[in-house]
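# step 3/5: fold
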Amino acid sequence: MNSIQEFITSEETYVKNLITVVDVFARPLRSYSQDRMNSILKPFNCTKIFLNIDQILSVNEGFLEDLRKYQKNPEAASFGAICDAHVRLKLYCVIPRKFSCTSKIIYFPFFPPAFIDCQL
C-alpha cells in the first residue's frame, strides 16, 4: 500500500467514526434535548459535549475527497498543498480546552450545576 492510500484508508476510518458519532449520538441527543418530556440531556450540555463535531466532520470529509482526487491525478496539486488547505487546528483546539468541563458533564452529572458551569 502506498503512502497516499494509507492516508486515504486512515481518513476513511476517521470520517466513518465521526459520522457514527454525529448520526447515532449527537443529532439524536440534540433533538431529544429540545423536548423536555423526553430529554436525556439539557441543550446546554449537548452543546458542551459535542462542541464543534459537525465542523470537524465537514473538514475531514473535504480532506478525504481531496485525497481521493489527488490519488487519481497527482499532477493537479501537491500533497502538501492539499494538507495545508485542510489544516484547521483551531477546530481541534476547542476540544482540549473544553474537555475538563465536558468530562464533568459526562462522568459527574450528580454534581451541582455550579460545578459544571464552565466558560465557553
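# step 4/5: annotate
Helices lie at 3-33, 43-50, 53-72, 79-86, 89-107, 113-116.
# step 5/5: archive (pending)
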